[in-house]
Amino acid sequence: LFPSPVDAGHRAVIFDRFRGVQDVVVGEGTHFLIPWVQKPIIFDCRSRPRNVPVITGSKDLQNVNITLRILFRPVTAQLPRIFTSIGEDYDERVLPSITTEILKSVVVSTG
């Protein structure tokens, strides 16, 4: 057994080579894992900012430059599902597409 520390504000999902990704989310503290068999995947669960720039067209056919700043954090109970379906870089994959579509709809409805 070897110690695996999980820092404050972080959570870990345990990947087991025999059983796959465990459904249990491990909290802060020191946890003991079996070498080579178990591996921790650590997620930052603190609120983090992200700026998303979008260039879109308004109703009068002018280009509008908008930068949206969002604060996001993952739902800790869903971390095993997020890891298996999207991956560790979930924010890079999900946030740009969602924010782009929402900003375009807001600009079209208000502009």
UniProtKB/TrEMBL annotation:
Residues 6-107 form the Band domain. One of its GO terms (cellular component) is mitochondrial inner membrane. One of its GO terms (biological process) is mitochondrion organization. Pfam families: Band_7 (PF01145). CDD domains: SPFH_prohibitin. It is found in: Mitochondrion inner membrane. Signal peptide: none annotated. The keyword Manganese does not apply. It comes from the Eukaryota. Keywords: DNA synthesis, Membrane, Mitochondrion, Mitochondrion inner membrane. Its main location: mitochondrion. In the plasma membrane, cooperates with CD86 to mediate CD86-signaling in B lymphocytes that regulates the level of IgG1 produced through the activation of distal signaling intermediates. Upon CD40 engagement, required to activate NF-kappa-B signaling pathway via phospholipase C and protein kinase C activation. Belongs to the prohibitin family. PANTHER family: PROHIBITIN (PTHR23222), PROHIBITIN 1 (PTHR23222:SF0). This is Prohibitin. It comes from Smithornis capensis.
